[in-house]
Amino acid sequence: MNATPDTTLPRERQQLILDRLHRDGKVVAADLAQEFRVSEDSIRRDLRDLASQGLCRRVYGGALLTQAIAPLDQRHHERAELKRTLAHVAASLVGEGQILFVDAGSSNTALARALPEHRDLTVVTNAPDVALAVIGRPGFEVILLGGRVDPRIGGAIGSRTVRQAQDIRADLCFPGVCAIDPERGLWTYDEEETVFKQAIIEASGETVAIATPDKLVASATHHTAPIGAISHLVVSAGTDQLVVARYRASGVLVTM
Amino acid sequence: MNATPDTTLPRERQQLILDRLHRDGKVVAADLAQEFRVSEDSIRRDLRDLASQGLCRRVYGGALLTQAIAPLDQRHHERAELKRTLAHVAASLVGEGQILFVDAGSSNTALARALPEHRDLTVVTNAPDVALAVIGRPGFEVILLGGRVDPRIGGAIGSRTVRQAQDIRADLCFPGVCAIDPERGLWTYDEEETVFKQAIIEASGETVAIATPDKLVASATHHTAPIGAISHLVVSAGTDQLVVARYRASGVLVTM
DNA sequence: AGCATTGCACGTTGTTGCACGTTTACGTAC
DNA sequence: GTACGTAAACGTGCAACAACGTGCAATGCT
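ok -> structure tokens follow
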């Protein structure tokens, strides 16, 4: 009879709160505190946690359900939990009022969903699904980069897109990456893509790449073009173990 | 035995007011005060808040709906079957190998889904969800128009977008419409929107508007700007009865 | 020991209803 | 048709209160 022990684990409590949230559409902090027999402070901490992951909308007195975005692509389902974790870490690097370049890619779509609301953020993107993930949410300005959309990538690239990107200066840049060679940097499949990514990196203060471990390769043979330097690399190694690496132009990889 | 308490959170109340507004088209402050068991002052504050976000129009005694706004998902679900039917009729006007301007809007998203595959079509759009509806499907080329995304519209508008649109020549144009005045033509809510729609209409050979019957109004008083002429109007009158109308610059309406 | 979680104390912020003076809508008198 | 009076609705300032975030010490687990 270990179905519902009296002792409720913190992580478990958050899951239960999420269930209630999906059932009722809202939760009241005071009621939750009474139900779980913990202080309202703990409930508030839970709600803050969940909101920072984009799983609910924090409001005065409780929390509301975020209008869930329909899962679009099958590829987005692969490694979904891992990507959400990485996205959460990457989102924590974003500061109030910043301007962000968000490239196309499933990891970056997860990032867009994980971005916190009410932070006065500007999201500049060439990917329709990234745009859809933030349009209409409070505290977001969205700028779309136009151009011919590459169906393999799911976003616009090409000279037209590059020209528009060069008109903008951003604080942070999240390029999608195809492969990471510890010695030679980031790689893409395609020359056009590289030009675009280089443009947004050059137009940004800092660059953050999100990658699942399978992107780390020793020799990037069949990838055509290197991108260049990034300042942070948010990567997952092993189960639940996070490695945030500082990555420089020459390819030095420093774990933190 | 409802476990859900009847406490209403402040922000939740605003959401509920907005829902009611979309259902009834209007709300009365005194009624809301009684319903939510708060003072009329609080209701007034809520309405002022919503109005300042452009979500409703404040009037003496309550508030009215500003149709342009809010839950895009909801608008997509309303009249879904009707819109699908209209979308298929409109899609039948598209010929092999043509270039199409597809504006933002729920009807046009339905159109994008209804467009036939393997026809070598080029879809030029300012709306992320329209782009997503065709990206990756066989026989489609997608060109995204960039710019600042208006969250009420769900697509990019503004001078940046207009400039990009002017670089392109299309065969067909599908502008989103807010209202259709049989005598004076198409109307939008907003000057910026109008400029964009005029630009894509001028850059196209023919123009086709899709509209549900509620868009047909006798006098478009509160809409700021007229768009101009369209050549075809795909509109539904009554249940399942389709009227395809030929519409000219001067406002002559010819049913077919 | 090291770490996560919790409840409490404190100062801060958001929300509410009331009091007050002003504006608006509408019916009535002229 | 215009002028006027009244009551409802309005905005604003204010005080009371609930909820909030943060720092800190106590507790429990590994």
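Residues 10, 38-39, 41-42, 45, 60-61 of chain A lie near DNA strand C (CB under 10 Å from a C1').
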